[in-house]
Amino acid sequence: MAEESKMERGLLVQPLLEGSGNSNNNEEDMMSTAGKSSSPVEATSAAVIFSTFVAVCGSFSYGCALSYSSPAESGIMEDLHLSIASYSMFGSVMEVGGMIGALFCGRITAVLGRKYTMWLSQVFSTIGWLAIALAKNDWWLVTGRLSIGFGVGFVTYVVPIYVAEIAPKEHRGSFSYASQVSFSYIFPTISIVKPKE
């Protein structure tokens, strides 16, 4: 029973703000201190908060990737002399990469684990952004956007599961919601910001 309770707490090893009168670090004291806390900051360890923040950055990169093509359209088309059809391909190929990435993400997560799958998703995203930044023609743009799509397919599967697993059960909903907030509010913000022409 104690082992199950320990697993339910996630990474809640030691409260962020401990009581000053108790210096004994046995498991019963830590559990009673965590149970009596009145605020989320006290009951949640710094490791859980930081781990959630890092994982949610994957959702942030998804929002940036999804909304990037609209404000950058005129600049990219002018710099690389692209047609509307070529730019449309660039704008839509990320979803194809996302579908392919989502097909394989479950198996990859089972083999590598959640943390390493998040790392792999960011490797794909980094390669994709570098390909877009250094693009000399439309195929580099499409290849980069496809690579970002693979990363996005991984992120949409693994981040919510990882965050739900590490969060304490009392705060699991609010921690899981952070991923959606990151995507939902960043996407419209970046979409409405247009560069000067």
TrEMBL record:
<feature type="transmembrane region" description="Helical">
    <location>
        <begin position="46"/>
        <end position="68"/>
    </location>
</feature>
<feature type="region of interest" description="Disordered">
    <location>
        <begin position="16"/>
        <end position="37"/>
    </location>
</feature>
<dbReference type="InterPro" id="IPR050549">
    <property type="entry name" value="MFS_Trehalose_Transporter"/>
</dbReference>
<feature type="transmembrane region" description="Helical">
    <location>
        <begin position="146"/>
        <end position="164"/>
    </location>
</feature>
<keyword id="KW-0812">Transmembrane</keyword>
<keyword id="KW-1133">Transmembrane helix</keyword>
<dbReference type="Pfam" id="PF00083">
    <property type="entry name" value="Sugar_tr"/>
</dbReference>
<feature type="transmembrane region" description="Helical">
    <location>
        <begin position="116"/>
        <end position="134"/>
    </location>
</feature>
<keyword id="KW-0762">Sugar transport</keyword>
<dbReference type="InterPro" id="IPR005828">
    <property type="entry name" value="MFS_sugar_transport-like"/>
</dbReference>
<comment type="similarity">
    <text>Belongs to the major facilitator superfamily. Sugar transporter (TC 2.A.1.1) family.</text>
</comment>
<dbReference type="InterPro" id="IPR020846">
    <property type="entry name" value="MFS_dom"/>
</dbReference>
<feature type="transmembrane region" description="Helical">
    <location>
        <begin position="80"/>
        <end position="104"/>
    </location>
</feature>
<dbReference type="GO" id="GO:0016020">
    <property type="term" value="C:membrane"/>
</dbReference>
<keyword id="KW-0472">Membrane</keyword>
<feature type="domain" description="Major facilitator superfamily (MFS) profile">
    <location>
        <begin position="51"/>
        <end position="197"/>
    </location>
</feature>
<dbReference type="InterPro" id="IPR036259">
    <property type="entry name" value="MFS_trans_sf"/>
</dbReference>
<protein>
    <recommendedName>
        <fullName>Major facilitator superfamily (MFS) profile domain-containing protein</fullName>
    </recommendedName>
</protein>
<keyword id="KW-0813">Transport</keyword>
<dbReference type="GO" id="GO:0022857">
    <property type="term" value="F:transmembrane transporter activity"/>
</dbReference>
